[in-house]
TrEMBL record:
One of its GO terms (biological process) is methionyl-tRNA aminoacylation. It catalyses: tRNA(Met) + L-methionine + ATP = L-methionyl-tRNA(Met) + AMP + diphosphate. SUPFAM superfamilies: Methionyl-tRNA synthetase (MetRS), Zn-domain, Nucleotidylyl transferase. It comes from Rostratula benghalensis. Residues 34-311 form the Methionyl/Leucyl tRNA synthetase domain. The keyword Lipid metabolism does not apply. GO terms for molecular function: ATP binding; methionine-tRNA ligase activity. Signal peptide: none annotated. This is Methionine--tRNA ligase, cytoplasmic. It is an enzyme of class 6 (ligase). The keyword Ligase applies.
C-alpha cells in the first residue's frame, strides 16, 4: 500500500516508459519474456460469449497486464481445423472441409477483432508449418521407439468404402438403450462408448449398416514413459502451482497405469501420416492439435524456436 501511495504521489510522469517490442516479438536477453496462448477454438461453429469468456478473454486480460508491467509479451492463438467434426460440418453444409475451415476461420477472426482481443497473431492449423512440425515430432517419436503398431476392430461402411470415425456412426447405446448414441459417447447417459459396442449401428453418411473389420493403427507407447514421468511429476507438484483438480486427475492416471494411446485415424481430413503402410491415414486430432501452438508461432516468425525451445529465457 505504501508503494502504491508513493507511486500515486509521483504521478504518471515518473512511470517507466512503455516497452515497445520490435516485430516480430522475440525473447530479449535480460527481460522477463512471456508467451501466452489461448486454447485453440474449434473451427466448425460461430463463437459465442461463453467461448470468449471461457478461454480467450482471460488470456487477453493477462496479456494486457503483462504489457502494462513492461514484460516482453507474445500472445498467440488460432483455429483448430482438423478432425471429424470438421468433416461432419462439411457434409452438413455441402462444402469441402477446407472451405468450412476458411469460412469459420474468417468468422472467428472478425469476432475476436470486434471484441478487440489483443492477439499478436491469430493463425490456424491447416498450414504447411503444421504438417512439417507434426510430422517431425512423429518421426522423432518413431526413431526413439515410442510408437507401437496394433490391430483395432473398427466399423467400416462398404457403401462409402471407408472406415467410420466415431462421429460418423450412430446406434443404440449398449448401456441405456438411447437410440441416437454416437460412436464415442452417449449423450443421454454420458458413458464413453467404443463404436463396435453400439447396437444397430448406422453410417451417418448413407444410413447403411457398417461391418466390423480389422485395421492397423499407431499408438503412443505411454507406459514406456512412466518411470521418467513419476519423478518429474513429484518435483513439479512440489514446486509448481497445480490446481487440486489437475493433481487428482493426473494421480488417477498414474495410479491406474498409463495405457498406449492411438494417434492415427482412417480419415482424409488431417495431417498425413508419413510412414509406409499408414499413408492412407491421418493423425488423430488430439495428437495434432496441441502442436498447433508451435506451428502458429512458426507462421508468425521463422524464429519460433526461440520461444518454444529456450528454457534460459
Amino acid at each position: 500500500i505504501t508503494a502504491a501511495v508513493e507511486a500515486w504521489v509521483r504521478g504518471a510522469a515518473a512511470l517507466p516508459k512503455p516497452w515497445k517490442p520490435e516485430k516480430p516479438v522475440l525473447p530479449v536477453e535480460g527481460m522477463r519474456n512471456i508467451l501466452i496462448t489461448s486454447a485453440l477454438p474449434y473451427v466448425n461453429n460461430v463463437p459465442h460469449l461463453g467461448n470468449i469468456i471461457g478461454c480467450v478473454l482471460s488470456a487477453d486480460t493477462f496479456a494486457r497486464y503483462c504489457r502494462l508491467r513492461n514484460w516482453n509479451t507474445l500472445y498467440i492463438c488460432g483455429t483448430d481445423e482438423y478432425g471429424t467434426a470438421t468433416e461432419t460440418k462439411a457434409v452438413e453444409e455441402g462444402l469441402m472441409p477446407q472451405e468450412i475451415c476458411n469460412k469459420y476461420n474468417a468468422i472467428h477472426t472478425d469476432i475476436y477483432r470486434w471484441f478487440d482481443i489483443s492477439f499478436d497473431y491469430f493463425g490456424r492449423t491447416t498450414t504447411p508449418q503444421q504438417t512439417r512440425i507434426a510430422q517431425d515430432i512423429f518421426q522423432r517419436l518413431l526413431a526413439r521407439g515410442f510408437l507401437l503398431q496394433d490391430t483395432v476392430e473398427q466399423l467400416r461402411c462398404e457403401n462409402c468404402q471407408r472406415f467410420l470415425a466415431d462421429r460418423f456412426v450412430e446406434g443404440t447405446c449398449p448401456f441405456c438403450s438411447y437410440e441416437e448414441a454416437r460412436g464415442d459417447q452417449c449423450d443421454k447417459c454420458g458413458k464413453l462408448i467404443n463404436a463396435v459396442e453400439l447396437k444397430n449401428p448406422q453410417c451417418k453418411l448413407c444410413r447403411g449398416i457398417p461391418v466390423v473389420k480389422p485395421t492397423q493403427h499407431l499408438f503412443l507407447d505411454l507406459p514406456k514413459l512412466e518411470e521418467r514421468l513419476e519423478p518429474w511429476l513429484e518435483q513439479s507438484w512440489a514446486t509448481g502451482d497445480w490446481t487440486a483438480n489437475a493433481r487428482y486427475i493426473t494421480r488417477s492416471w498414474i495410479r491406474d497405469g498409463l495405457k498406449p494411446r492411438c494417434i492415427t485415424r482412417d480419415l482424409k481430413w488431417g495431417t498425413p501420416v508419413p510412414l509406409d503402410g499408414f499413408r492412407d491415414k491421418v493423425f488423430y486430432v488430439w495428437f495434432d492439435a496441441p502442436i498447433g501452438y508451435l506451428s502458429i508461432t512458426a507462421n508468425y516468425t521463422d524464429q519460433w524456436e526461440r520461444w518454444w525451445k529456450n528454457p534460459q529465457q
